[in-house]
Amino acid sequence: MVDHRPPNTPPDPQEREKLESALTRLESSARLLDSQFRIPFTRIRFGLDPLMGLLPGIGDAAGLVLSLYLMVEAVRLGAGTRQVMRMAGNVLLEFVIGIVPIVGDLFDFAWKANDRNAALLRRHIEKRLDPGPRRRPWIQYTLIAVFGALLLFLLVMIWRALFVASGA
Question: Which terminus, N or C, of the chain has the lesser number of Cβ atoms within 10 Å?
Fold first, then answer.
């Protein structure tokens, strides 16, 4: 989404409605992944992401792909590189600690990277999208792709070290 308005100009009502609708959709997705369900009689909330993480290897990879999708959508909504990098840091921390058996699963329940990233995006839109100079979203998409590839490579290497080496 390239914005050609002068700097510091608020988005027009139609644009604002479009952004709010997209943000509502992404917040709903983040909630489903991180905090949709509640353990009865507690304040503990969780979503599908920590449940998927219980499946060795595959669950963590699926959670990573869904988190990367939310980051790509953030770029489409005009999030800056700094914000995308903060989002990547949230996902990286959740992914790296999440692949550690048991400890990682408990961390997934607590960290909620997708909810954190949705909150970052909410703050960004509330600042009314500082359009400034034309951005280069291809740089952000490249960073997300490299980031995702590195994390998947790390997952494969750990999987090989644990399962292939022990089977030899």
Answer: C
CB distance 34 to 49 below 8 Å:
yes
Mean pLDDT of the chain: 84
Cα separation, 24 vs 31, whole angstroms: 10
34 and 112 Cβ atoms separated by less than 8 Å = yes
pTM above 0.85, yes or no: no
Residues of the chain with pLDDT > 90, as a percent, come to 34
Q: Which two tokens stand for residue 21?
A: 């609708």
